[in-house]
Amino acid sequence: MKEKLAALQHDIWSHWMRYLFSCCKKSNSGNLIIPKDKVNHWKRQVSLKYDKLSEKEKDNDRDQADKILKLFKSSSKYFLGKRYYQL
Questions:
Q1: E strand residue ranges, the chain
Q2: What is the phi-psi region of residue 81: left when phi exceeds 0, alpha when psi lies from -120 to 50, beta otherwise?
Q3: Furthest CA-CA distance within the chain
Q4: Out of 7, 15, 35, 45, which residue is the most buried by the measure of CB atoms under 10 Å away?
Q5: 23 neighbors 35 (Cβ within 8 angstroms)
Q6: Which tens digits make up the pLDDT trace of 6-25?
């Protein structure tokens, strides 16, 4: 289960990085420059707790959580603490 979860986390991260790179402008030296509006937007989000995000922003996090829940549900058991629980 740990490897499946790690693979899923990598997929989530990879998706985010592809999106981030697509927002950037490439300099002549090959550096990627994040537009100021994106930086400001993400800095605001980083500074907030989940419950202070807009519903749209929460929906993005919920979509990621659904991917993790789907992985757990696809397994007949999952580990929580020191016990296994059936779903």
A1: 25-26, 32-33, 77-80, 83-86
A2: left
A3: 55
A4: 45
A5: yes
A6: 999 999 999 999 999 999 99
Residues in contact with 87: Cβ distance below 8 Å, sequence separation at least 6, in sequence order: 72, 73, 75, 76, 77, 78
Q: CA 4 from chain center: how many Å?
A: 16
pLDDT tens by residue, 48-72: 999 999 999 999 999 999 998 888 8
Average pLDDT over residues 23-46: 97
Angle at 21 between CA 19 and CA 22, to 5 degrees: 65
| Global pTM value | 0.73
Report the DSSP pairing between strands 83-86 and 25-26: unpaired
Q: How far is CA 35 from CA 13, 16, 18, in A?
A: 20, 16, 15
The three-state secondary structure class of 23 is: helix
Distance CA 41, CA 22 (A): 16
